[in-house]
Amino acid sequence: MIQITRDPIDPDAAIRQVSSTQAGAVVMFLGTTREFTAEKKTRSLNYDCYPEMAERKLAELETAARDRWPIVECSIVHRLGHLELGEASIVVALSTAHRRDAFEAVQWLMDRIKEEVPIWKEEHWADGTTEWVHPGLPPQEN
Amino acid sequence: MIQITRDPIDPDAAIRQVSSTQAGAVVMFLGTTREFTAEKKTRSLNYDCYPEMAERKLAELETAARDRWPIVECSIVHRLGHLELGEASIVVALSTAHRRDAFEAVQWLMDRIKEEVPIWKEEHWADGTTEWVHPGLPPQEN
Amino acid sequence: MKIEVRLFAVARQLANQETIAVSCPESATIADLKQAIIEQLPELATILDHVRFAVNSDYADEKTQLSSTDEVACIPPVSGG
Amino acid sequence: MKIEVRLFAVARQLANQETIAVSCPESATIADLKQAIIEQLPELATILDHVRFAVNSDYADEKTQLSSTDEVACIPPVSGG
Question: What is the pLDDT of residue A139?
Protein backbone atom coordinates (compact mmCIF):
# COMPACT_ATOMS: atom_id res chain seq x y z
CA MET A 1 0.00 0.00 0.00
CA ILE A 2 1.24 3.45 -1.01
CA GLN A 3 0.12 6.65 0.66
CA ILE A 4 1.20 10.30 0.56
CA THR A 5 -0.47 12.25 3.32
CA ARG A 6 -0.48 15.45 5.37
CA ASP A 7 -1.58 13.52 8.47
CA PRO A 8 0.87 12.27 11.13
CA ILE A 9 2.36 8.88 10.35
CA ASP A 10 1.14 5.95 12.47
CA PRO A 11 3.90 3.30 12.49
CA ASP A 12 1.71 0.89 14.44
CA ALA A 13 -0.94 0.97 11.70
CA ALA A 14 1.75 0.15 9.12
CA ILE A 15 2.99 -2.79 11.22
CA ARG A 16 -0.53 -4.14 11.70
CA GLN A 17 -1.17 -3.79 7.99
CA VAL A 18 1.87 -5.90 7.01
CA SER A 19 1.66 -8.54 9.77
CA SER A 20 0.58 -11.93 8.48
CA THR A 21 0.63 -15.57 9.53
CA GLN A 22 2.43 -16.19 6.22
CA ALA A 23 5.35 -14.05 7.44
CA GLY A 24 7.95 -14.69 10.12
CA ALA A 25 9.61 -11.29 9.82
CA VAL A 26 8.47 -7.68 9.79
CA VAL A 27 11.04 -4.94 9.20
CA MET A 28 10.08 -1.30 9.55
CA PHE A 29 12.02 1.87 8.78
CA LEU A 30 10.83 5.16 10.24
CA GLY A 31 12.48 8.42 9.15
CA THR A 32 12.23 11.07 11.85
CA THR A 33 13.04 14.78 12.02
CA ARG A 34 16.50 15.18 13.54
CA GLU A 35 17.43 18.29 15.50
CA PHE A 36 21.03 18.61 14.26
CA THR A 37 22.57 18.19 10.77
CA ALA A 38 26.30 18.55 11.29
CA GLU A 39 26.25 21.62 13.57
CA LYS A 40 23.15 23.28 12.13
CA LYS A 41 20.03 23.23 14.28
CA THR A 42 16.67 22.48 12.70
CA ARG A 43 13.48 24.07 14.03
CA SER A 44 11.08 22.23 11.72
CA LEU A 45 10.82 20.71 8.23
CA ASN A 46 8.48 21.14 5.31
CA TYR A 47 7.99 18.48 2.63
CA ASP A 48 6.58 19.13 -0.82
CA CYS A 49 6.10 16.75 -3.73
CA TYR A 50 4.99 16.30 -7.32
CA PRO A 51 1.97 14.28 -6.25
CA GLU A 52 0.98 12.31 -9.38
CA MET A 53 4.56 11.30 -10.13
CA ALA A 54 5.50 10.60 -6.50
CA GLU A 55 2.59 8.18 -6.09
CA ARG A 56 3.42 6.52 -9.38
CA LYS A 57 7.12 6.15 -8.53
CA LEU A 58 6.34 4.71 -5.09
CA ALA A 59 3.94 2.19 -6.65
CA GLU A 60 6.59 1.24 -9.25
CA LEU A 61 9.17 0.75 -6.50
CA GLU A 62 6.78 -1.47 -4.51
CA THR A 63 6.21 -3.57 -7.64
CA ALA A 64 9.95 -3.78 -8.35
CA ALA A 65 10.65 -4.83 -4.74
CA ARG A 66 7.95 -7.54 -4.96
CA ASP A 67 9.65 -8.82 -8.13
CA ARG A 68 12.99 -9.12 -6.30
CA TRP A 69 11.93 -10.43 -2.89
CA PRO A 70 9.06 -12.69 -1.73
CA ILE A 71 7.22 -9.90 0.08
CA VAL A 72 3.98 -10.86 1.82
CA GLU A 73 2.69 -7.35 2.61
CA CYS A 74 4.18 -3.88 2.09
CA SER A 75 3.24 -0.41 3.32
CA ILE A 76 4.93 2.86 2.33
CA VAL A 77 3.60 6.14 3.72
CA HIS A 78 5.27 9.54 3.12
CA ARG A 79 4.22 12.65 4.97
CA LEU A 80 3.98 16.13 3.42
CA GLY A 81 3.77 19.63 4.88
CA HIS A 82 5.04 20.94 8.20
CA LEU A 83 6.86 18.53 10.55
CA GLU A 84 8.03 19.27 14.07
CA LEU A 85 11.23 17.79 15.51
CA GLY A 86 10.85 14.08 16.21
CA GLU A 87 7.90 13.64 13.83
CA ALA A 88 8.11 10.95 11.15
CA SER A 89 8.40 11.81 7.46
CA ILE A 90 8.27 8.24 6.14
CA VAL A 91 7.46 4.70 7.17
CA VAL A 92 8.38 1.67 5.08
CA ALA A 93 7.18 -1.61 6.59
CA LEU A 94 7.04 -5.03 5.00
CA SER A 95 6.79 -8.68 5.88
CA THR A 96 8.54 -11.77 4.46
CA ALA A 97 8.83 -15.41 5.48
CA HIS A 98 12.52 -14.96 6.45
CA ARG A 99 14.23 -11.93 7.92
CA ARG A 100 17.09 -11.37 5.45
CA ASP A 101 14.68 -10.67 2.62
CA ALA A 102 12.82 -8.12 4.74
CA PHE A 103 16.00 -6.24 5.71
CA GLU A 104 17.26 -6.19 2.12
CA ALA A 105 13.94 -5.08 0.66
CA VAL A 106 13.39 -2.21 3.12
CA GLN A 107 16.95 -0.93 2.62
CA TRP A 108 16.62 -1.16 -1.16
CA LEU A 109 13.30 0.70 -1.07
CA MET A 110 14.75 3.47 1.10
CA ASP A 111 17.79 3.84 -1.19
CA ARG A 112 15.59 4.04 -4.28
CA ILE A 113 13.06 6.40 -2.68
CA LYS A 114 15.86 8.82 -1.81
CA GLU A 115 17.07 8.75 -5.44
CA GLU A 116 13.92 8.64 -7.50
CA VAL A 117 10.75 9.85 -5.83
CA PRO A 118 9.98 13.54 -6.46
CA ILE A 119 9.61 14.69 -2.86
CA TRP A 120 11.63 17.57 -1.43
CA LYS A 121 12.55 18.60 2.09
CA GLU A 122 12.81 22.23 3.14
CA GLU A 123 14.86 22.90 6.24
CA HIS A 124 13.56 25.59 8.56
CA TRP A 125 16.73 26.32 10.50
CA ALA A 126 16.66 27.57 14.06
CA ASP A 127 18.31 30.82 12.87
CA GLY A 128 15.13 31.68 10.93
CA THR A 129 16.43 30.88 7.42
CA THR A 130 14.89 28.26 5.16
CA GLU A 131 16.55 26.06 2.53
CA TRP A 132 15.35 23.46 0.04
CA VAL A 133 17.53 20.36 0.30
CA HIS A 134 18.88 19.23 -3.09
CA PRO A 135 21.77 16.75 -2.82
CA GLY A 136 24.48 17.62 -5.33
CA LEU A 137 23.09 21.03 -6.23
CA PRO A 138 25.48 23.96 -5.69
CA PRO A 139 24.19 26.46 -3.07
CA GLN A 140 21.82 29.04 -4.58
CA GLU A 141 21.83 32.77 -3.95
CA ASN A 142 18.23 33.66 -3.21
CA MET B 1 16.29 -1.58 27.37
CA ILE B 2 16.12 -5.36 27.69
CA GLN B 3 12.98 -7.24 28.65
CA ILE B 4 11.94 -10.89 28.73
CA THR B 5 8.21 -11.18 29.28
CA ARG B 6 5.17 -13.45 29.10
CA ASP B 7 2.99 -10.50 27.99
CA PRO B 8 2.18 -9.77 24.33
CA ILE B 9 4.80 -7.64 22.60
CA ASP B 10 3.81 -4.04 21.84
CA PRO B 11 5.88 -2.88 18.83
CA ASP B 12 4.49 0.64 19.09
CA ALA B 13 5.79 0.97 22.66
CA ALA B 14 9.24 -0.10 21.46
CA ILE B 15 9.17 2.47 18.65
CA ARG B 16 8.07 5.24 21.00
CA GLN B 17 10.80 4.26 23.43
CA VAL B 18 13.59 4.57 20.86
CA SER B 19 12.31 7.65 18.98
CA SER B 20 14.43 10.73 19.65
CA THR B 21 15.08 14.15 18.14
CA GLN B 22 18.75 13.09 18.10
CA ALA B 23 17.89 10.33 15.62
CA GLY B 24 16.84 10.47 11.99
CA ALA B 25 16.29 6.74 11.63
CA VAL B 26 14.39 4.07 13.54
CA VAL B 27 14.65 0.45 12.38
CA MET B 28 12.50 -2.23 13.96
CA PHE B 29 12.49 -6.00 13.53
CA LEU B 30 9.48 -7.98 14.65
CA GLY B 31 9.61 -11.79 14.64
CA THR B 32 6.16 -13.31 14.21
CA THR B 33 4.75 -16.84 14.39
CA ARG B 34 4.56 -18.25 10.88
CA GLU B 35 1.96 -20.87 9.95
CA PHE B 36 4.15 -22.95 7.63
CA THR B 37 7.77 -24.15 7.93
CA ALA B 38 8.52 -25.91 4.65
CA GLU B 39 5.33 -27.94 4.37
CA LYS B 40 4.71 -28.46 8.09
CA LYS B 41 1.83 -26.56 9.63
CA THR B 42 2.26 -24.90 13.02
CA ARG B 43 -0.66 -24.61 15.44
CA SER B 44 1.17 -22.59 18.10
CA LEU B 45 4.62 -22.05 19.63
CA ASN B 46 6.03 -22.19 23.12
CA TYR B 47 9.21 -20.34 24.15
CA ASP B 48 11.31 -21.23 27.19
CA CYS B 49 14.55 -19.69 28.40
CA TYR B 50 17.32 -19.75 30.96
CA PRO B 51 16.21 -16.45 32.43
CA GLU B 52 19.27 -15.14 34.27
CA MET B 53 21.62 -15.95 31.40
CA ALA B 54 19.23 -14.79 28.66
CA GLU B 55 18.86 -11.35 30.27
CA ARG B 56 22.60 -11.11 30.76
CA LYS B 57 23.38 -12.12 27.17
CA LEU B 58 20.83 -9.66 25.75
CA ALA B 59 22.33 -6.86 27.85
CA GLU B 60 25.84 -7.82 26.70
CA LEU B 61 24.67 -7.76 23.07
CA GLU B 62 23.09 -4.31 23.51
CA THR B 63 26.39 -3.05 24.97
CA ALA B 64 28.40 -4.62 22.15
CA ALA B 65 26.08 -3.07 19.53
CA ARG B 66 26.44 0.36 21.17
CA ASP B 67 30.23 -0.05 20.98
CA ARG B 68 30.03 -0.71 17.24
CA TRP B 69 27.34 1.74 16.12
CA PRO B 70 26.30 5.20 17.36
CA ILE B 71 22.95 4.03 18.75
CA VAL B 72 20.75 6.67 20.35
CA GLU B 73 18.15 4.35 21.94
CA CYS B 74 17.66 0.58 21.84
CA SER B 75 14.85 -1.73 22.92
CA ILE B 76 14.91 -5.54 22.83
CA VAL B 77 11.90 -7.48 24.11
CA HIS B 78 11.59 -11.29 23.88
CA ARG B 79 8.36 -13.10 24.65
CA LEU B 80 8.09 -16.43 26.51
CA GLY B 81 5.34 -19.00 26.88
CA HIS B 82 2.47 -19.82 24.53
CA LEU B 83 2.18 -17.88 21.22
CA GLU B 84 -0.65 -18.13 18.73
CA LEU B 85 -0.08 -17.81 14.97
CA GLY B 86 0.76 -14.24 14.01
CA GLU B 87 1.87 -13.23 17.51
CA ALA B 88 5.30 -11.65 17.93
CA SER B 89 8.13 -13.47 19.72
CA ILE B 90 10.69 -10.65 19.57
CA VAL B 91 11.00 -6.96 18.82
CA VAL B 92 14.36 -5.25 18.30
CA ALA B 93 14.05 -1.50 17.72
CA LEU B 94 16.76 1.13 17.74
CA SER B 95 17.47 4.64 16.57
CA THR B 96 20.56 6.22 15.02
CA ALA B 97 21.34 9.53 13.33
CA HIS B 98 21.67 7.84 9.90
CA ARG B 99 19.78 4.87 8.54
CA ARG B 100 22.64 2.56 7.48
CA ASP B 101 23.85 2.22 11.07
CA ALA B 102 20.34 1.33 12.24
CA PHE B 103 19.87 -1.40 9.61
CA GLU B 104 23.31 -2.88 10.32
CA ALA B 105 22.87 -2.84 14.09
CA VAL B 106 19.42 -4.48 14.08
CA GLN B 107 20.58 -7.22 11.70
CA TRP B 108 23.70 -7.84 13.75
CA LEU B 109 21.65 -8.05 16.96
CA MET B 110 19.20 -10.52 15.39
CA ASP B 111 22.04 -12.71 14.08
CA ARG B 112 23.76 -12.74 17.48
CA ILE B 113 20.51 -13.33 19.42
CA LYS B 114 19.79 -16.38 17.28
CA GLU B 115 23.28 -17.77 18.02
CA GLU B 116 23.92 -16.89 21.63
CA VAL B 117 20.88 -16.17 23.77
CA PRO B 118 19.57 -19.22 25.68
CA ILE B 119 15.96 -19.14 24.52
CA TRP B 120 14.27 -22.12 22.87
CA LYS B 121 11.26 -22.51 20.65
CA GLU B 122 8.94 -25.51 20.87
CA GLU B 123 6.80 -26.16 17.79
CA HIS B 124 3.27 -27.38 18.44
CA TRP B 125 2.49 -28.84 15.04
CA ALA B 126 -1.02 -28.99 13.66
CA ASP B 127 -0.79 -32.82 13.71
CA GLY B 128 -0.68 -32.72 17.53
CA THR B 129 3.04 -33.48 17.97
CA THR B 130 5.48 -31.13 19.68
CA GLU B 131 9.18 -30.58 19.01
CA TRP B 132 11.92 -28.45 20.57
CA VAL B 133 13.80 -26.61 17.85
CA HIS B 134 17.58 -27.07 18.10
CA PRO B 135 19.42 -26.05 14.91
CA GLY B 136 22.14 -28.59 14.10
CA LEU B 137 20.96 -31.21 16.57
CA PRO B 138 20.13 -34.64 15.09
CA PRO B 139 16.43 -35.61 15.51
CA GLN B 140 15.75 -37.25 18.90
CA GLU B 141 13.68 -40.34 19.52
CA ASN B 142 11.38 -39.46 22.39
CA MET C 1 4.93 25.42 -29.56
CA LYS C 2 4.44 26.33 -25.91
CA ILE C 3 5.56 23.78 -23.32
CA GLU C 4 4.17 24.14 -19.81
CA VAL C 5 6.74 23.13 -17.23
CA ARG C 6 5.82 22.49 -13.58
CA LEU C 7 8.39 23.72 -11.09
CA PHE C 8 9.10 22.42 -7.59
CA ALA C 9 11.24 23.32 -4.58
CA VAL C 10 14.25 25.52 -5.44
CA ALA C 11 13.15 25.84 -9.09
CA ARG C 12 9.80 27.25 -8.01
CA GLN C 13 11.57 29.50 -5.54
CA LEU C 14 14.03 30.86 -8.14
CA ALA C 15 11.35 31.43 -10.80
CA ASN C 16 8.77 32.55 -8.25
CA GLN C 17 6.17 30.63 -10.30
CA GLU C 18 4.58 27.17 -10.06
CA THR C 19 4.42 26.73 -13.82
CA ILE C 20 6.28 28.36 -16.69
CA ALA C 21 5.29 28.41 -20.37
CA VAL C 22 8.36 27.98 -22.55
CA SER C 23 8.40 28.71 -26.31
CA CYS C 24 10.13 25.87 -28.17
CA PRO C 25 10.50 24.81 -31.80
CA GLU C 26 8.13 22.00 -32.92
CA SER C 27 9.36 18.52 -31.91
CA ALA C 28 11.78 20.02 -29.47
CA THR C 29 13.69 17.62 -27.21
CA ILE C 30 14.44 18.06 -23.52
CA ALA C 31 17.85 19.47 -24.56
CA ASP C 32 16.08 22.08 -26.68
CA LEU C 33 13.71 22.87 -23.81
CA LYS C 34 16.65 23.47 -21.47
CA GLN C 35 18.22 25.84 -23.98
CA ALA C 36 14.91 27.71 -24.31
CA ILE C 37 14.57 27.97 -20.51
CA ILE C 38 18.06 29.42 -20.22
CA GLU C 39 17.13 32.12 -22.73
CA GLN C 40 13.67 32.90 -21.40
CA LEU C 41 14.22 32.40 -17.64
CA PRO C 42 17.91 33.05 -16.93
CA GLU C 43 17.21 32.85 -13.18
CA LEU C 44 16.92 29.06 -13.66
CA ALA C 45 20.20 28.73 -15.59
CA THR C 46 22.33 27.89 -12.54
CA ILE C 47 20.35 24.76 -11.67
CA LEU C 48 19.63 23.32 -15.12
CA ASP C 49 22.79 21.18 -15.23
CA HIS C 50 21.68 19.48 -12.01
CA VAL C 51 17.98 18.84 -12.58
CA ARG C 52 16.11 16.07 -14.36
CA PHE C 53 12.94 16.51 -16.37
CA ALA C 54 9.87 14.31 -16.23
CA VAL C 55 7.44 13.86 -19.12
CA ASN C 56 4.02 12.50 -18.18
CA SER C 57 5.33 11.47 -14.72
CA ASP C 58 8.34 9.52 -16.00
CA TYR C 59 11.95 10.63 -16.06
CA ALA C 60 13.00 11.73 -19.54
CA ASP C 61 16.46 12.07 -21.07
CA GLU C 62 18.00 14.81 -23.20
CA LYS C 63 16.75 13.22 -26.42
CA THR C 64 13.11 12.74 -25.38
CA GLN C 65 10.87 14.55 -27.87
CA LEU C 66 8.11 16.76 -26.56
CA SER C 67 4.64 17.57 -27.80
CA SER C 68 2.53 20.47 -26.57
CA THR C 69 0.12 18.13 -24.73
CA ASP C 70 2.85 16.53 -22.60
CA GLU C 71 2.93 17.20 -18.88
CA VAL C 72 6.51 18.33 -18.29
CA ALA C 73 8.09 18.87 -14.88
CA CYS C 74 11.47 20.11 -13.73
CA ILE C 75 12.75 17.76 -10.98
CA PRO C 76 15.60 19.14 -8.85
CA PRO C 77 17.58 16.52 -6.87
CA VAL C 78 15.06 14.87 -4.57
CA SER C 79 15.31 14.79 -0.77
CA GLY C 80 12.33 12.79 0.47
CA GLY C 81 12.43 9.81 2.79
CA MET D 1 31.95 -33.42 44.32
CA LYS D 2 28.35 -33.06 43.15
CA ILE D 3 27.67 -30.63 40.29
CA GLU D 4 24.12 -29.49 39.83
CA VAL D 5 23.33 -29.00 36.14
CA ARG D 6 20.24 -27.13 34.95
CA LEU D 7 18.55 -28.64 31.91
CA PHE D 8 16.45 -26.90 29.24
CA ALA D 9 14.34 -27.80 26.22
CA VAL D 10 15.23 -31.21 24.72
CA ALA D 11 17.73 -31.94 27.50
CA ARG D 12 15.03 -31.49 30.11
CA GLN D 13 12.66 -33.58 28.01
CA LEU D 14 15.15 -36.46 27.60
CA ALA D 15 16.15 -36.51 31.28
CA ASN D 16 12.63 -35.74 32.47
CA GLN D 17 14.19 -33.51 35.14
CA GLU D 18 14.89 -29.77 35.44
CA THR D 19 18.14 -30.28 37.33
CA ILE D 20 20.49 -33.22 37.60
CA ALA D 21 23.16 -33.80 40.26
CA VAL D 22 26.27 -35.30 38.68
CA SER D 23 29.12 -36.90 40.66
CA CYS D 24 32.49 -35.65 39.41
CA PRO D 25 36.10 -35.81 40.61
CA GLU D 26 37.37 -32.67 42.43
CA SER D 27 38.42 -29.87 39.99
CA ALA D 28 36.61 -31.57 37.15
CA THR D 29 36.43 -29.72 33.86
CA ILE D 30 33.45 -29.47 31.52
CA ALA D 31 34.96 -32.40 29.56
CA ASP D 32 34.99 -34.48 32.76
CA LEU D 33 31.41 -33.42 33.52
CA LYS D 34 30.26 -34.57 30.08
CA GLN D 35 31.92 -37.95 30.62
CA ALA D 36 30.22 -38.27 34.00
CA ILE D 37 26.83 -37.36 32.49
CA ILE D 38 27.23 -40.03 29.80
CA GLU D 39 27.85 -42.62 32.51
CA GLN D 40 25.17 -41.50 34.93
CA LEU D 41 22.44 -40.35 32.51
CA PRO D 42 22.91 -42.27 29.26
CA GLU D 43 19.63 -40.82 27.94
CA LEU D 44 21.53 -37.53 27.43
CA ALA D 45 24.45 -39.12 25.57
CA THR D 46 23.04 -38.48 22.08
CA ILE D 47 22.92 -34.70 22.50
CA LEU D 48 26.14 -34.05 24.42
CA ASP D 49 28.27 -33.55 21.30
CA HIS D 50 25.91 -30.77 20.21
CA VAL D 51 25.32 -28.79 23.39
CA ARG D 52 27.28 -26.04 25.09
CA PHE D 53 27.64 -25.62 28.83
CA ALA D 54 27.35 -22.38 30.77
CA VAL D 55 29.05 -21.73 34.08
CA ASN D 56 27.62 -18.86 36.11
CA SER D 57 25.66 -17.61 33.06
CA ASP D 58 28.63 -17.51 30.67
CA TYR D 59 29.50 -20.02 27.98
CA ALA D 60 32.31 -22.32 29.12
CA ASP D 61 34.68 -24.47 27.08
CA GLU D 62 35.85 -28.05 27.55
CA LYS D 63 38.74 -26.98 29.79
CA THR D 64 36.78 -24.76 32.16
CA GLN D 65 37.29 -26.03 35.74
CA LEU D 66 34.26 -26.45 37.95
CA SER D 67 33.68 -26.01 41.65
CA SER D 68 30.68 -27.31 43.55
CA THR D 69 29.28 -23.79 44.05
CA ASP D 70 29.18 -23.01 40.32
CA GLU D 71 25.83 -22.67 38.60
CA VAL D 72 26.15 -25.00 35.63
CA ALA D 73 23.66 -25.26 32.76
CA CYS D 74 23.39 -27.47 29.71
CA ILE D 75 22.55 -25.25 26.67
CA PRO D 76 21.23 -27.10 23.60
CA PRO D 77 21.39 -25.14 20.31
CA VAL D 78 19.26 -22.04 20.86
CA SER D 79 16.22 -21.09 18.78
CA GLY D 80 14.98 -17.78 20.14
CA GLY D 81 14.31 -14.64 18.16
Answer: 79
**Would C10 be classed as within a structural domain?**
yes
In this model, does residue D18 exceed pLDDT 60? yes
B22 touches chain A (CB under 8 A): yes
Report d(CA A5, CA C79) in Å as an integer.
16
Question: Hey, what domains does chain A have and what are their CATH numbers?
Answer: 2-133 (3.90.1170.40)
Position C80 in a domain: no
Please give the C-alpha separations between residue C46 and each of A49, A142, C15, in angstroms, as whole numbers: 22, 12, 12
* D40 found inside a domain: yes
Q: Is the ipTM of this complex over 0.90?
A: yes
Structural domains counted in chain D: 1
What is the domain range of residue C53? 2-75
Nearest to A19 among B86, B102, B106 (CB): B86
The answer to whether the beta carbons of residues A105 and A38 sit under 8 Å apart is: no
Facing C76 at nearest CB: one of A90, A117, A120: A120
pLDDT tens-digit map of D56-75:
999 999 999 999 999 999 99
* CATH number, position D66: 3.10.20.30
Predicted confidence at residue B141, as pLDDT, reads 59
Model-level pTM?
0.96
Q: Chains contacting D with at least 3 CB pairs below 8 Å?
A: B
Question: Which portions of chain A are predicted below pLDDT 70?
Answer: 141-142
Q: Is A135 exposed, middle or buried (0-12, 13-18, 19+ CB in 10 A)?
A: exposed
Low-confidence ranges of chain B (pLDDT < 50): none
D26 lies in some domain: yes
Contact of B49 with chain D, judged by CB distance below 8 Å, is answered with: yes
